[in-house]
Amino acid sequence: MVGYSLLLLSALLIGIGVYITIAKKNFIRILIGVEIIATGVNINFIALSALKHRVLIDPLPHAIVVTSIVLDGVLVGVGLALTLVIYRKFGTLNVDKIRKLRW
Amino acid sequence: MLPYAPWIVWALPIIIAFTHPITERISHRLRDFIAVAAGFVSAIFAASMIPDIIAGSIYLDGVYHDIPFDWILARWIPVDGIEVTVGVIVDSLSVFMANVVAWISSFILLYSVEYMHGDRGITRYWMLMNLFIGFMELLVLGDSLITIFFGWEGVGFASYALIGYWYTDEKRYWIGPYSPSHAGMKAFITTRIGDVGLMTAMLIIFIYSGTFNLIELANNIGWAVNLARDGLLTITLLLMLLGPIGKSAQFPLHEWLPEAMAGPTTVSALIHAATMVKAGVYFLARFTLVLYNVAHMADGLGPLLNSIQEFYIAVTFIGAFTAFLAASQGMVADQIKKVLAYSTVSQLGYMFTAFGVTGLLIHHQEAFAEAYMTGLYHLLSHALFKALLFLSAGAIGHAIESYMLKDMGGLRKYMPKTYLLMLIGAFGLSGIPPFNGFWSKDAILHVAFSEGYIIVYIVLAATAIITVFYTFRMIGLAFFGEESEHVKHLIHEGRKPHDPGIYMLASLYFLAGGTILSGFLIPNIGLFFSRNFEYLGISMEILSEIPAFTTNFFTTTLLSPLFIVALGIIVVGLYPSYRIYIKNVVSPVEVVGEGLLKKIWIFLYNRWYINAAYYKIFVDGTQWIADSIFSYIECNGGGNLLKSLYTSLSNVVRRVQTGYLRVNMGYMGLAIVFIILYYLVMG
Amino acid sequence: MNGSPIINILLIMGLFTIATPILGYILRRWNLEKYLGIWATLNFIITIIYLLTLGDIKQYIVFSFQSPVSALFRLDWYSLFFIYIFLIVGFLSSIHSIGYMSEDRHLTGYYTLLQTMVLGLVGLALADDLFTFFVAWEIMAVSSYVLVGFRYHLDEPVEAAMKYLVMSGVGSLLMLYGISYVYGMVGTLEYPYVTLYIRGISQHLEGLQNILPVVAVIASLFMVGFGIKAAYFPFWTWLPDAHPAAPSPISALLSGIVIKAGILGLIKYGLPFILLQPEIYSKVLVAIAVLTMTIANILALLQPDIKRLLAYSSIVNIGFIMIGVSVASEGGVIEGVSSALTHVFSHALGKGLAFLAAGAIIYAMETREIAKMEGLGRVRPFTASALMIALFSLGGLPPLPGFWSKWFLIFSAVSVGDWLLAFTGVINSVLAIIYYIWLFQRLFLSEPTKESMEAREVATSIKISLAIMIILMIVIGIYPDIMYIPAVKAAEALANFLPFTP
Prior knowledge:
By secondary structure, chain B is mainly alpha-helical. Chain B has helices at about 5-15, 20-25, 30-45, 50-55, 90-115, 120-140, 145-165, 180-210, 215-220, 220-230, 235-245, 255-260, 265-275, 275-295, 300-330, 335-360, 365-400, 415-430, 435-450, 455-480, 485-490, 500-515, 520-530, 530-535, 540-545, 550-560, 560-580, 590, 595-605, 610-630, 640-655, 660-680, and strands at about 55-60, 65, 70-80, 80-90.
């Protein structure tokens, strides 16, 4: 039962994350939204591992989750570096104001 | 056979063509040398195939292959169930034609070294010439309709570029009222009309047969049977005929050839003697072999045979009519190259007639073989003497810097060698024994007469009279009589007309030798073709009874009553031109006078008004449609229909690309929701 | 089986890539950093030569790496086909970069990232389990984010990188979410076992009914996740921003091969799941193909910026590739996949050349506006002709690869009887020709503008890269078997793993 509720939790987290990326204007918040999605996905792995084997003995999801966390760290690193540049160039982090590229 | 000979023959000139821009940087002489050497090496490879044909089999990779040998090197268009291959065919016809093309064009290349010396765009010239020859060889050696078509289009492109070679359109290069680039375009468009027909026919045949390969088309005749059953065979064959008609400048697509003189004379020689116009005749010869097989394997299928007969009746009449039409125009042409151009159209008409008669005789093995060969004999003769005539005319043009007959006159004194060489060519063209034109032309007339096509015979004989007349008119106007103002002016300036140099003369001597001798090779050529006929089921026993395949050919020709007629033709044609143009007893203006002859003269000079009608209908008509579309539908012309359509459409739709990151993410979210909903509804 | 070729490929590319920063550090002292491009070129050319020495791969080569969890690699025709494409475009882009990037800063980082990106692509082509695939995918993706924003002193790359990072990052995560369900369903991520499981379950009606909801989730998530990378409808919105913003050689890489990674993933990992319920997903795929082509074509019609025009044309071509994928989902697996792969190849070459040539024009004129390039064909014929050859190939004119691949695509659509797809394919070819021909008219037939009269000669390395690409295009155009037969082999290699194979 814990497994299924974890599945629901992760789906919820992903939904929240996607909602944040759609609804929020601040770039840092959007990055946080991306991170929430990542967390949701990671939890999903663990939940499915628990559902599959009853106990957490399979090393595969753990390896994936660890790797995924590292890769998310890289993503956020690039994103935050980008935040600095954006602020320097545009003087704002409001993504609605950054739309020179269209059509 | 030298290794890979049939491939190298066509591939070498094409590859070499693309090296000229590189070798040009090194040295101009190297570039010229390589260009000419490519021609001769290719010719040697072509010649190396002759012994194999005579021996009757081709030795390759330890296996003896029968003739015709279809050498397939690669699979090409990869579509399931359809095999389009890249291959060459080695048989008597292709090897014969490959040699004619390769050798004559090699000497034309040698001639151009001197003729084109000092021209500005000469790298382009060499590139296009080598491409021209290479594509013609591809056309000749190709084993399938599609390979032939590639060569066909390549030849068309190269001829377009070479006719319009002097694209700056300086006035001195104009032929008639048209500039060189206009002439090139005209040649390209006119032949393209024929190509569309050919391509349509190819595709219809492909739909019915599933193959382009000529050998397979000849052996599996289901396509022809089915086409005949659906009543499409005649129309398909006639569409196919449009291609050769356009390429070989037959009525009604003959109008491009007189203007095709606008390029350098060597190009004209190449177009008329070896490549381009011979492509159509070659294709007809090649496809006649296929149709022979079809007709014989489908014995007893009435509609099929009727269709084939109808097709060949069309060929015969087109050929005979064109022969007469063009010859009549040749009588009044005012430029030496134009006279020769009309004569080419006329002589091609002879070849078409020969193949038309061949096709009509498809059921009589003996007569078929004889008639088939006459067309090819004439092809060879014509290639030799026409190249000779054109190159001699080029020598005149080189010397006096004009091709107008009125700018010549009395050149015999200044250019004695050219005069003699051109005279040999003229003897060949007008069919005076024992030069090659006599034997081959007489053979065509002989077949037409003895097989009972009297109308054809009469038309061709009348054409022969005209041919003699205009040939000697040309010789008379150029070499006899008073020097014209232009020549006097040149002499006054110290630029006396003189015979050409060693490169040009060497080529001329070779071609003159060919013109004198090739007539005597006719029985040998006949035997050379016995391989193809044996493949068609016409055995050596049957062939050995035909005069054209034995040394009896000469005696039978000379002893036949038609020989008297032939002599009569020469006398009737020669006498007036001798009196008017060579001895200048009567002035041509007096002969024409003001009456009916003047009207005929104007009619002929305006090319039967066919050209004018074409311009009126097709050029102006197309122009009119284009203008209407431009002004009412297209952008910029005022109508702006399409432009406003595109613009408004694009302006509306482009709003989806908002540039808002959140909207982009929103699309994604919507897509996910949509997929889930869709799954819930459908699943 | 002996896995040494895979180790060798990864070793060659990995060592070259790792050595790049060290070499760059040394070269910087003498101001020779720009010649790092030669190093990158060497990397790719040596790998290509190594692959050529392998010859025809009869079966497949597996290499498994047993550490805490196993990483599985497989070299068969499917991966080989993509690796060749990746390496060829990477090779030419790095030659092009020597001249194009010579005035930029941070070149060590640039070349390191370039090689890392191609290494990631090669890795994800070789990967045979979804875990390895995901790692390689992220390596490729992160380097591409940085490369898009490489010229961060300008406005455009920064904005483009931001949008690209968010969308692509979310896409990768959604893909990982899908992978997690694959794990939940099968218990392992190794591709052979996953497909074995699917094939096994597809024989049992009852078992199939039970897993169908999970399959639906996986298929949908893969379609979204890979779709964001491949940039089809409605996920393309990042592409017209990101591809033009990158330096031109990188645009060539992004448009030529990086978006193809999405196609690779969709065909290899998405198709087994899609084929479990083809009647549902084929309609979605057809809709995607049709809408992608049509909308992107209309968007491109009036585009004044040359690189943006090319970017839209990339989306159009992704739509064409989706024709092949839809055909595969409608039953013609071999036909569909092989024609899609053929178009992947021809588009990689064509769009690679187009972006490289556009880069050459930008290098020569320092502008991206088409209006200012009018008449350039008369001043700099080689550069302009290179662009036009690429565009004619993309538009599908006969003696070029684009013609053949479009022909195969439409032919495959007809072979499964989907006339709608075939028809829209033809219509969109015509629509695309409109703006290519318009570009031709402006480049070659108009009077030269002041800017184009002053266009400078391009660097030698740019010329070399264009010349090699043109030769490749013409050779393949004349003899399409070079790309078609490997594509068929790749499709056959893949078909072994798909359910319901004929």
